[in-house]
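Title: Request for sanity check on Gliding motility protein prediction

Description:
We are preparing a figure and want to confirm that the structure record we downloaded matches what your pipeline produces today. Could someone re-run it with the sequence below and paste the raw structure tokens into this thread? We only need the token string, no images.
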Amino acid sequence: MTVSPPAQQRLARSAPSAREVDAFCVQYAPRAPGHPAVRDLFRLLLEVPEDGLDARLAWVERWMHWMRERIPAQGLVEAEDATLSPTDSRLSLLVRVLEGESALRASVTRLVSGVCSGSRGLKLFAQVGLSGGNGFFSELTDRFARGVLPAPPEPGNLSELLLRLFPVPQDAEWLAALSPALLARLTALVGDPPPPDPSPITRVRGDLMDALLLLGVQVTSLGLAEDVRDRSPGLSFRGSPFLKLRLVCDAVLARDGAQDSLRDLAQGVSDCRQVVGSVTRHLEHSGVSVDLVYRLERIRRGLDRMEAIARVLGAARGEPRWREALVLLSDLLRHAHADRSVRALVRRHARLLARKIIERTGNTGEHSITATPGGFHRMVHSAAGGGLLTAFTAALKFFLGGLSLAPFFAGFFAALNYAGSFVVMQFLGFTLAARQPSMTASTLAAAVGEDSGPGATSGRMERLAALVPRITRSQLAAVLGNLGCVLPAAVALALGFQLIRGHSLLSVEQAHEVVASLHPWHSATLLWAAFTGVLLWVSSVAADWFENFVVYRRLPEALAHHRVLRVFLGERGARWLAGGLMHHAAGVGGSVTLGVLLAVAPGVGGFFGVPLDVRHVTLSFGALALAGCTLGPSMVLAPGFLAALLGMAVIGLLNFGVAFALALGVALRARDVPLREGLRFLGVMVVRFLRQPGPFLIPPREEGLPDDAVPQVVPLVGPPGH
């Protein structure tokens, strides 16, 4: 439709008259001529700047504010779609006006062409959301500086324009909800300017092509790194999908995004994903570093971005292309805001660290989560040995406490007592209760996160229901073995000491202090038991880290082929030493860490004025048994002593529960399992326990695992007894 000369004259005037506004409103909103959306749009279209990138961008901001108004532009004409959202109703009004006013349409077309010709989209498509490899503290400092200091204007950068138009992260949802059909109609109106003005579609397509090529180069470089190639030994360098990906990207660029070249690109991306999956599986056997996990994450993100760009390039022009473009733009907007957020940076690095912790599960000993009555009994016997050693550890603790030592030496010998006891347990194959390994939580998180689909929920919950009772039974077996043996061993030690020395191991004052410190509600023993659960989890992380360090640095292989060791121990002795290091790495590393933490934490807390203390169920029960021998049989039945016995059960639950919750939380975070899935899983387990507590406490007579369930033997990562 061609406008009349009076309509053309409107463009030359900055402020339309009231009669012109009314005439415009009657023409395009006959049922609601006084609607503010119509009047504001008319004034906005009359003020389209003819030149200047800054002025044009300012007008685009004003247009976006008009689009974001909550008052819908519905009911303006007959047969109008009443189901449109407020935003889409305003977009429909804009399309209808531009279809009817050729002069206004021409001015908007020139503006769109000018904005696209003066802007660059390579950074937006190829860098936003894909970290450039800066260190954590460097990136943290940069984000703080950008949040405090004023930023220089970059009007030609589309990534800055995106944040300028959509200043809050929630705008990504608004952008994704726009109608692709209406945007396609708007593009058909203003997306093809007459020559010699540059075509916006051609410019954006060129930026997408350049971004695809740049991403291909970056992903290829990361995928051909030495440590990635070492973990995919089945592929030759020439046959690497990452090397082929670079060539496929060149073909896409040379053929201007032809459909067959895009299909080759999709296949290349799929092949690269398989290599990344293979490398991730090899982390269990060859170790993992934070840098490697970080680069694998960058490869995954780069491949995702390449797929999104390829979908936009391959979609048919019009509504299908806009549907894919909105998905890409909303994702870019989310990442653009995340790239400026300090909180998002901390969350991402915490997630990478969590993935590094659980990616390598390791194989760290013969003790495992029990699945049969025989395994349950073996766990009890192993824990009985741990209880026997713990009785000596508790007695030695009080002996060292009675010596007049400087604080440093008191802490040193206390740590040596704990760590030495735990290391001996490790080498003798004994078990200490409340050891919650990260491997167990990682297995649970994998079961929660796999088979993500509406029809797979029940099967996933059944697998979890089969695994969790084995974990609780194993911990119960360890507690029963520990406590069942630490009691008679501690009593025997106390009676033997009294027989030899003529007085009890603990004084009456010390015995009363022990009983009072274990009272569940007259002392802070519950708080210290939860704190000890944190220390138990930290020790399991240290166990994983040390084992991963040994494997990643290939220390067993180095020891097995060390010339000096072969001279003194012989080839067989060197291999035996290497095998022992591999077998006991996690146990020794975690044992030493736990021993140091239990001994040092109270001293560190006291140094800062915080009265920290620790409560481990087996050590506390050993101390209570020694106190009972000093106080005598009559005091053992006193209410205070019985309350301390009740505190033992609560301490065990808190030790296990806190350590398990922390390990499971890290695993869920690392595997991107939604919080609602984890809460649902816990709710299901609680309901099952209340209905049938038996399987959670004692093993059934016959129990087997289906082929598709979790493995029957899940190694416990972390000392002692592994």
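Thanks, this matches our download. Residues 369-697 form one domain.
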